[in-house]
Specification:
CATH architecture: 3-Layer(aba) Sandwich
Oligomer: single chain
Strand content: 15-25%
Distance between the termini: 53 Å
Strand order of the largest sheet: 2-1-5-4-3-6-7
Helix content: 25-40%
Number of domains: 1
Shape: globular
Number of helices: 7
Largest sheet: 7 strands, mixed
CATH superfamily: Glutaredoxin
Order of helices and strands: HHEEHEHEHEHEEH
CATH class: Alpha Beta
Length: 161
């Protein structure tokens, strides 16, 4: 019995990766998103548009109370970092809800709808367990910050400076 417990414990710890990714997986890069103009693009095409710039990714939804409460802090980040691209990726249930939320909450930035949702290739790679979810991509296209759940997280400011 002790051997069985030891084996199970070893397997569990071996499968728990503490390493934070610095690059998106091919599956995540090839996941399809919808632009505000209803154009379908891969995540690779989206981030390539902003090559050479720092990018703050805000994964949100218009129905998410914590996301809406965090928006004033995102606006503060935007004001303090005018050369940074703010990429808003929506997990709304419908495109109509997403577009309505952008207008209702006056969300300024680049907007895309995550077609595959929480459990698609992008969502699975990012391991979305809560929104809002913030990430930062550096000017070289590497993931500089994999996870923050508050817009005023000091880690965001650190990687932007």
């Amino acid at each position: 019995m002790k051997k069985l417990i030891l084996i199970i414990t070893t397997i569990l710890f071996a499968n728990c990766s503490t390493e934070t990714p610095t690059q998106f997986s091919d599956k995540a890069l090839n996941d399809t998103f919808t632009s505000i103009n209803n154009t379908e693009l891969t995540f690779q095409e989206i981030i390539t548009k902003y090559k050479g710039k720092k990018i703050v990714i805000d994964i949100w939804a218009s129905w998410c109370g914590d996301c809406i409460k965090g928006m004033p802090k995102v606006v503060q980040l935007q004001k303090g970092n005018p050369n940074v691209v703010f990429l808003f990726l929506s997990l709304d249930k419908t495109i109509a809800d997403w577009k309505s939320g952008i207008k209702k909450y006056h969300v300024k930035g680049e907007h895309y709808f995550i077609k595959s949702g929480w459990e698609g290739d992008f969502g699975s790679f990012v391991n979305i367990d809560w929104i809002p979810r913030y990430m930062v991509i550096d000017a070289q296209g590497k993931i500089a910050l994999f996870k923050a759940v508050k817009a005023n997280d000091t880690k965001i400011k650190e990687v932007l400076n």
